[in-house]
Each structure stands twice: as C-alpha cells, then as structure tokens.
Amino acid sequence: MPVKSTLLRRSGAVCRLSHCARMAGCLAGLALACAVVFAPPFVAQSAPLPDGRPVGHKTVLMSKAFRGNLPITELTEDEAALHALNRLAYGPRPGDVERVKQMGLEKWIDEQLHPERIDDHAVQARLEEYPAIRMSTEELLARYPRPQQIAKREGLTLQQYQEQQRQARENGDMRAVANRPQEIVLELSEAKLTREIYSERQLQEVMADFWFNHFNVYAGKGPERWFLPAYERDVIRPHTMGKFRDLLYATAKSPAMLFYLDNWLSVDPKAFAEHQGELQARRQRFLMLFGGDPNMMMRRNQNAANQQKGPQRNGLNENYGRELMELHTLGVDGGYTQQDVTQAALALTGWTMTAPRRDPEFRFEERFHGDEGKVVLGKKIHSGGMKDGEQLLDMLAANPSTAKFISTKLARRFVADNPPPALVERMAATFESSGGDIREVLKTMIYSPEFWSRAAYRSKIKKPSELVVSALRATGADMAEAMPAVRWTAQIGEPLYGCQPPTGYKDTAETWVNSGALLNRMNFSILLATGRMRDTRIDLPALLGPDDAKDPNSVLNRAVDVFLGGQVSPETRAVLEKQLDDPQVLQAMLDDPVKDVDAGMIAGLVLGSPEFQRK
C-alpha cells in the first residue's frame, strides 16, 4: 500500500485555535510574557535536609548509586534528573524522572553517550510513514519532479500547468498537491520531530540538531531539498558523536554543502579562462533542471572589512572558504584574514560534484585546480591536487581556535548562553588531546561542576522546536501525524530546514523571546493540553488524576508537580491562580455552581508558564 502523501495528510492537519484557547492564551500570555523576558530563572527553595540545613547553594547529599562520579553538589536528585533530561534530551516524558533515578543518573548518561547500545525499534516503526528520508537523490528527483518538468511532459507551459493545479485544488482534488517537491522537506521535518519526541536515543537527536545547525544548509536554495535527505542521513547523523575531522570532511564533500556555498563551481582563475564555456554549460543545465540562478548565494550581511574588499578573481568563489573558517572551524575571532580566505578557496578549487540529475556525489576535477602553492594562517599548502583541500581541512580541524570555537558552541547549547570560560578551556583541551573526539568533549562538559550548578539549572530558553517537542513529551502525547507539530514549530518562529544564512539558528534567549512568539507559545500549549491539536491524543486524567476535578487549585498544584517538577516562582503562581476564576476554566458563568474544572486549560497555562519555557 503506498504511503499517503504528506501534503494530503497536511491538508487534514490544520490546527484551528478555539475561542477558549485564544482568549486564555492572550490573557495569560500577556501576563506571563513579561515574566519570561525580564525575570531571572527561578531558584527553588527545596525542603530542608534531614539535619536541618537548607537546600540551595550549599552542598546537597545524594546517593552514590544515583550520581556515580558526577560532580553534583547543588541540585537534589529530582532536580539533577530533570536537568539531565532537559539538557541531554528533549525533556521528560511521564515517569522519566523516576526511571532515571531508579536506573542511576550516571548509567543513564553513559547509555545516551553510546546510542548504538539503545534499542530504538519503536521510533523506526513510526518513521516508516516518511519514505523520502530513505530515498536517494535520484529517486527523489523521479518521485518529486519540478513543476517545469511535469508541464513539459504534459505538453503545457509552466503557467498553464500552475493554473491547472490551482483549479484542481479549488475543486477539492487533492491529487493536485501530491508528489510536489515541497513534500521532501515536509517529510524530513515530520521525521525530525518524530525522532525527537519518541526516540530513546535522545542525546543523539540533540546532537543531530546541533550539528545540522552548525553546518547549516537552506532547503529553499535551488536543488537543496532533493539533497537534504542524504545530507542529514549520510553526513550529519553518522558523525554526531564521532571525530570532528570526519564530520568536517563529510560536509565538505557533500553535494548539499558544495551547492549551498557554491564551491561546486569554484575554479582556479587560470583554469577559468580555458574552461569558461564548460562552466557556463553547467550553469545552464542547472537552470533547466531546477530553475533559478545556480551561482547565487544567500548572502548574509558582511562586516565592513569584507564589504570593502576587492572583487573576487574570475572563476574563484570564496563563499565556502570563508564560512569554512568563520562558521565551521576557527570562528570569527579565529585569527584568519581575507588573504587566508582567498588562499583557502584556491586550495578547494576543483572540489565539485557529478551531475545532479542522477545521484550526485563528490568529485575532484584536477583541471579546475591550480598547482601553485597556497599559504593559509602562515602555513604552506602544496600537497598537490585534491590533497591541497584535505591538508587545509586537517589543518583547520587541528587548530586550537577550532577546539575553542566548537567547545564554546557546545557549552552554549548545553550549559549557558554565556558559558563559563574555565569550562570552555577544559573542553577545548579535551578536543585537542583526543583529536577532536566529540563524545570525549561532551563527557568533559557533563562531568564538570558548571554543568550541574544552580546557576545553570533552568537558565536557558527553549527554542521553538524544543518547546513543541518537550510539551508533547511531557504530556505523553500520541501523534498520528507530526504535521501539526511541524506547523506550530514554524509558527512560533523556527521553520525547520528554513534558516537561510549559513549561520544557522542562534541558540541564545534574545533570539526567541518576543511578545508575538510568547503568545504563540501560550496558544500552542493550551491547544495541546485541551485536546484540540489535530491528530494528537493525550490522556490528562492519567497525568493529573481524576480526584478533586471540581477544585481548580488542586488541579493547578498537580499540573505544577507533573510539568514543572513542583517548582514555580511566586510571581508565576500568582498569575496562574488569578486565571482560575475565569469562567472558561471553571466551566461556569457568574454565580453558577462549578460543574467541572477545565483541567486542560489549567495544564495549558502551566505549559505556557515561564518555568516550562526554560530548560
């Protein structure tokens, strides 16, 4: 039986906000937004220890069986388990905190650091719904052809074909939206969120998201959508916790990266004069196959120094050489110059790919490469041919600035927006001593007191995808389709595979905190918790219990326990309690007796609270 089209499924997955969710979301969202923006993370005042000492910044005793050798001194066992699940995973599912405590936190972390040891067959069954993620580029091009190709095959102009499709959609013929190229990205997006919600290999999914964002490519540029499944499947995911050098090589030779940053058409200026006609023919083939300008780069704003530089030499494209150093390895403060960028680009000339109308793959074209020596960061590169580029990649992967830059980004993702310099230094030292072993760098970070500090606890704001995934996990949601989650992720501000600049999405609070996004977060939370999210089922009575269904305060207390680990600031609680008098929550008007409290509305307000927006 053929798998149902993603766009056919998408047509039935439109999330409509009820009047109830819209009103409560606006009222509570406006009140809670200020708390998220301006308040520091709430530091819970836990119950005193048995000997009477308060729990806070003082040493907290916990069992050796639970923590092993982890340097946890400022968090309780419940807090440490919740912190690990929020940072090394996408948040707890019902019962996960207790499962981690029973298993032992150190043992759980060691298992996550070795995902190959974890049985993940259940999520694989869900992924069967998305055939595009398993297809080769050749298969994708055949199944999801460009509209120009279909029009030509049917003897129509592009305009005639598009009008035909428009009329078919208006007449309710959903075959008109099947097998369009957009489906590739939609299936990738659904598969991505499905893994993040249901996979047992949680740290691997966090790292897959981290590395795709680090080596970002944009689905909307030319043929990228046809390249994306292989890029994520064969380049990013196999290297999430391996050696950084291997990941760097894999991205440098990936058709997705070669096209996105234009290196596939970068030619030594001397060779350009001889092969200019052939290169122009390549561009024309791309125009015929994909449309658009194949040599156009989605440029981000350059700093003043780059804006003042002279024109690039004929045939040479510096886009990849620049981003390789600035974004992939050394960092903007890594000590390179514009001359280094040009020399790096020269070292990488001839790194191109085979014809993309079949299965594209990396190919080195000797005749497009210059034989003269290059000098990058004061070091000579003169290995000859393709080895020039490989020598460059090896040099950059082993550079101390790369160790510091990658360590800083990892610490920013997992520890704090402004990570402690001492922690970054230790991680960078591990990076250098281990030859860029990502798993070892993560272990240095996880086995640091900074990771488990009170200051790090709930200090980071969840980006939109993290909020959507963590809320679905927290409620134990069973999704028949992931499209509503994909749509909400985009609506809150993070279209998956849709970041145009090579920087990728930022991982700091100021990027995601604004009034419009916060109201969307609240509306999503209420829609989910009240059972109005399409194709998604949750069992609130199983989470909150059927008792005291007519007592809104009891329902609120239980929701705070379940979704926030029992920790909520006095300010947030005051705002939440004020909402309990709303007739929509009480399901009663004016002086009517309370029949049943809308537990879903209360749960939604808690999921939209500042504490749940943090991790």
How would you sum up this structure, described in words?
- The chain is mainly α and 615 residues long.
- Among the domains are: 6-40 and 460-613, no CATH class; 126-236, no CATH class; 400-446, no CATH class.
- It is 54% helix and 3% strand.
- The chain is built from 33 helices and six strands.
- The chain has helices spanning 6-11, 19-38, 64-67, 77-87, 96-103, 105-113, 121-127, 137-143, 147-153, 158-170, 182-198, 202-214, 224-236, 244-252, 255-260, 269-290, 304-307, 319-328, 338-347, 386-397, 400-414, 421-433, 438-446, 464-474, 483-492, 509-512, 515-529, 540-544, 552-564, 570-579, 583-586, 599-607, 610-613, and strands at 351-353, 362-364, 374-376, 379-381, 478-479, 536-537.
- The strands form three sheets. It has a two-stranded antiparallel ribbon with strand order 1-2.
- A hairpin with a 2-residue loop joins β3 and β4 (379-381).
- The model is unreliable at 10-26, 45-57 and 295-311 (pLDDT under 50).
Strand order of the largest sheet: 1-2
Number of strands: 6
Distance between the termini: 42 Å
Number of helices: 33
Largest sheet: 2 strands, antiparallel
Percent helix among the residues?
40-55%
Shape estimate: globular
| β-sheet strand percentage | under 5%
Rg on CA atoms, Å: 26 Å
Mean pLDDT, nearest integer?
86
Low-pLDDT residue intervals, each spanning 5 or more residues: 10-26, 45-57, 295-311
Structural class: mainly alpha
